[in-house]
Amino acid sequence: LENLEVKKTLVAIAALTLVGAVSAQSSVTLYGRIDAAIGSQKTTVGGNTTVDAGAQILAGSHTGNRWGMKGSEDLGGGLKAIFQLENGFNVDTGTAAQGANASFGRQAYVGLTGGFGSLTVGRQYDMLNIAYGNYDPFGYSGYGAMNYVFNRGTGGDVIGRQNNSVIYTSPNLGGFSVSGLWAPGEDKNPVAGTSAGNNYGLMASYANGPVGVGAAWQSNKVGGVGTRATTNYLVGGSYDLGAAKLYGQFEGTNNKGANAKDNGWQLGAVIPL
Question: How many CB atoms lie within 10 A of CB 1?
Answer without folding.
Answer: 10
